[in-house]
Amino acid sequence: MLLKLALAGLNHLLANEEWARNRLKPFAGQTACLKLGALAFPFSISAEGRLQATDVTAASVTIQLPADAPVRMLLDRNSLFSAAHISGPAEFAENLGFVFRHLRWDIEADLADFTGDIVARRLVKSGRQLANWQARSTENLARNVAEYVAQENRQVATKQQLTEFSEGVQAIASHLEQLERRIAAVELRAASRRTNTPT
Fold it and tell me: Cα 198 vs. chain centroid, distance in angstroms?
C-alpha cells in the first residue's frame, strides 16, 4: 500500500517533467530500491521513464534516505537528497539521484485545481509556517529536556563536570605514579641495606 502511494506520488511529479522521464528511459527494466529505516520501496523503470512496482529483493541501485526524511522533505528537500546514500552501478545511480534531487512538487498548482489560486497560496504558506513552527518547537523541547536532565535532575553529567572529573582522574593517576616510584626507591634502599649488612 505504502509502495503504491509512494510510486503514485513520484509518477505524478514525473508526469509534469518530460526531462526527467527522458533521463530515465535509457534505464528501462532496471531496478532500484528506496529505503527509509525498515521500509523498502523496490521499483523498476518503465519504457516511458516512469516508476513501477517490482518484487525484486536485490535491486541494482539502493537509495538509503536519512531517518528524518519526512521532515526534510517538507522543510529542506536539498538537504534530504544530499544526505541520502546512493549505491549501485554509477551511471544508473547518478541519473536516478539527479532526477530525485531536481524533481519539484508544485503543491500550490495541485491545490489550485481544487481550491483556486488564492486559497492554494495561503494554504501552502500556512503549511510551511506550521512545519517551521513544529521543527522549532521540537528543537526547543529537545534542548529543554537535555538542560533539565543535565542541570536540574542530575541524571547526566554536564560537559564541565566531565572535564573536571577527567582532570581529577589524571591528577590521581599522576600522584599514584609518583607514589609507586617512591615505594620502589624505598624498597631498593632497604634491599641494598640488607645485602650490605654483615652477618
Answer: 78
For the chain, helix, strand, coil in percent to 5 are 65, 10, 20
Strand arrangement of the beta sheet that strand 39-45 belongs to = 51-53, 39-45, 31-36, 61-65, 85-87
Domain map of the chain by residue range? 2-102, 107-156, 157-191
| Domain 2-102, architecture per CATH | 2-Layer Sandwich (3.30)
Q: Give the angle 36-46-49 at the CA atoms, nearest 5°.
A: 85
Each as own residue / partner, the long-range contacts of residues 46-55 (CB below 8 Å, 24 or more positions apart, any chain) are: 48/21, 49/14, 49/20, 49/21, 49/22, 49/23, 49/24, 49/25, 50/11, 50/14, 50/15, 50/21, 50/24, 51/7, 51/10, 51/11, 51/14, 52/7, 53/3, 53/4, 53/7
- The alpha-carbon radius of gyration of the chain (Å, integer) is 31
3-class secondary-structure state, position 41: strand
3-state secondary structure of 149: helix
Provide the pLDDT for residue 26.
Answer: 92
pLDDT tens digits for range 51-84: 888 877 778 888 888 777 776 666 666 666 667 7
pTM over 0.85: no
